């Protein structure tokens, strides 16, 4: 199939001059090496509603239409389209970056930018067959985050908390047990209750506790009760974020003698253990679902399943097995 190329500005100017002196479309087509039917479409397209054909305006309209067309059809190639759709969904659930990176390995003749895939997923103009493709992304966001991310606010929150840069190296490299990370599991706005998730960095043991509300006092009381039940080897430090639910951190330290270190604002990766733990809990507590109906008994069951699941990072031991080995001095 012959590829169609749009007229250039120079061709439009020559077409205008030749047409204005009475040269026929067939003759103009011969001189421009263009089909006379293409010239006829060009003329009809830009002289609607009695408008005069002007090369510069015709070029501007053509450029605008071309840009709009490109925005509407980022996946014109059927092979690329099918590859993207297949790997976004079950059983792959690949991210746009993974799809874009792998496409060139599987099909060297093709390439696509991950941003193009994101535009395809999120723009309501695209024909996605009624499928909400954003549901297949890792974070299930209905709308995209701003290009430059969120503005970092609240740099001064919890000013008395110890900086994470000062956390012991034994905690950072996971060589020593007893260093915990804690965060609340995100819930929907209408929920009145909450869930506290706390993960020990070395063993990856997770503790899930029901919160009757989102107050700092409630979080502190639950956390104090939890860590005091742990073996003495597992009572060294706690890492938090700078959310208001952690504003009682000084009282927590007074009651437990465990120093509290705070991550930098919006640096969730600095408490990656609990972030990973919360992510794993989403299998049981889907994001966007209410947790008000969940009891502590429910959370204890979920916690037990997670702590008795083999982990590759632990050499396929379970977190509970590693915890017990550490208690008995059998794990280094």
Task: Give your account of this protein's structure.
The protein is of the alpha/beta class and 332 residues long. It contains 13 helices and six strands. Strands 1-6-5-2-3-4 form a six-stranded mixed β-sheet, with helices on both faces. Helix 2 crosses helix 3 and helix 9 runs parallel beside helix 10. It is elongated, with a radius of gyration of 30 Å. About 2% of the residues have low confidence.
Q: Main beta sheet, described? A: 6 strands, mixed
Low-confidence stretches: 152-156
Secondary structure class reads: alpha/beta
Portion in strands: 5-15%
Chain-averaged pLDDT: 86
Q: What overall geometry do the principal axes of the alpha carbons give?
A: elongated
If strands are numbered along the chain, what order do they take across the biggest sheet?
1-6-5-2-3-4
Helix % is 40-55%
Rg result: 30 Å
By DSSP (H or I, 4+ residues per run), the number of helices equals 13
SSE topology string: HHHHHHHEHEEEHEHEHHH
How many runs of DSSP E, i.e. beta strands? Answer: 6
Q: End-to-end distance, in Å?
A: 68 Å
State the main characteristics.
332 residues, alpha/beta, six-stranded mixed β-sheet, 13 helices, 6 strands, 8% strand
